[in-house]
Amino acid sequence: MLMGCGIVTAVPLLLYANGAKGLQLTTIAIMQYIAPTLIFLVAVFAFGEEFGRARMIAFPMIWAALVIYSVSMFRKMRREG
Predict the structure, then answer these.
(1) Contact, 2 vs 10, CB < 8 A?
(2) Where are the alpha helices (DSSP H) in the chain?
(3) 47 band by pLDDT with thresholds 50, 70 and 90
């Protein structure tokens, strides 16, 4: 069973690494932010995971920080190029 768990873990990671070779880094970065958010939304709405007060505060703060960071990067890119 232990070897089977290793294979089940390794195969998706190898497929992801192989697929990521053809993508731009910005695309991979966006996927790294969107995937956990989608998993979180599925957990809350499909599986009934508890969405407590701490998560109600933390979730928008994470996305607000991402927006602030992205806006500053876009402004910097416009000035440079």
Answers:
(1) no
(2) 2-20, 25-45, 53-80
(3) very high
81 Cβ contact list (under 8 Å, min separation 6): none
What span, in angstroms and rounded, lies between the C-alpha atoms of 2 and 7? Answer: 9
Sign of the four-CA dihedral 55, 65, 67, 27: negative
CA angle 35, 28, 78 (to 5 degrees): 115
Q: Which two tokens stand for residue 66?
A: 């991402």
One-letter amino acid at 51 equals: F
Q: Residue 31: which of 59, 39, 41, 1 has the closest Cα?
A: 39
Cα separation, 46 vs 56, whole angstroms: 18
